Amino acid sequence: MSSGAEAGDIVKLAREHGELRPVVEKARALLEGRKQIAELEELIAGDDADMAALAKDELPELRESLPDLEHAMQIMLLPKDKADDSSVILEVRAGTGGDEAALFAGDLFRMYQRFSSLNGWKVDVLSASESEAGGYKEIQASVNGEGVFAKMKFEAGVHRVQRVPATETQGRVHTSAATVAVLPEPEDVDIEINEGDLRIDVFRASGPGGQSVNTTDSAVRITHLPTGVVVSQQDEKSQHKNRAKAMQVLRARLYEAERARVDAERAAERKGMVGSGDRSERIRTYNYPQSRVTDHRIGLTLYNLDEIIRGDAVGDLVEALITRDRADRLAEMQGDVS
Fold it and tell me: Quick check: pTM over 0.70?
């Protein structure tokens, strides 16, 4: 990094250094622990009875700590998703269930806002289509911070809610759904977009807005010609700002498409892994009558729905999913070694 590397290389090297440093520190601690055990065993076998007695007292504690160090080392050596440190584009859409689905989508988005706040991440809404009954038909936001994708990626999929809607007069429980997409937001060094591959159209924004929003061609639609991916933005009065937001979302979608292609090639070997990210997969059910939340991928059921939907306890689900994912990958790696 100090040898005069170019700016793009500096970013990559700094990231690699940040990833390797904790691994090196843990490896040094493990080697030091093994060295100390060997030294204590030598003392025990030696002629100095007093030193041997002291060594016998220290040895059990050191031996007991070694398996934890070795397990932590194994976890750190697991193949890492290079997108784990990325910020994300979060998309929440109402699914089946009409107005109730839109209300649930709003609940989910607020849950992630609170979860992000607790983790020190910044949430910026990129676009939102509100429902007349409340909530959102669709909402997009960027979530910026350290290690966002590593925690948020397991939230991608179909979330189902079972509750009595406010409009229900006979107290019947309805089932609705909302879809969550979590797209890692690449750095400029991760993906390049050729301007010649883009078709950019400007048009007059529709829907409610302030002065000039609906009277000038400020809305932007960008089509990525090689893939057919289309992104539109119209929330800002400025065409320049709408274009910047659209490019941000386009970059994330293209990056995710490439990740999906690579993941599909590895599907056979990763078939059982938690967090496939398949948007069609029903991953979780929120049952209000029983205050129950069940994550179907790992069979985990918690009975603190209010705390989870408020965002204060969604981290309990996330940590359980991360732990299961690590365990599965560790078992897979050990199986490959054997």
Answer: no
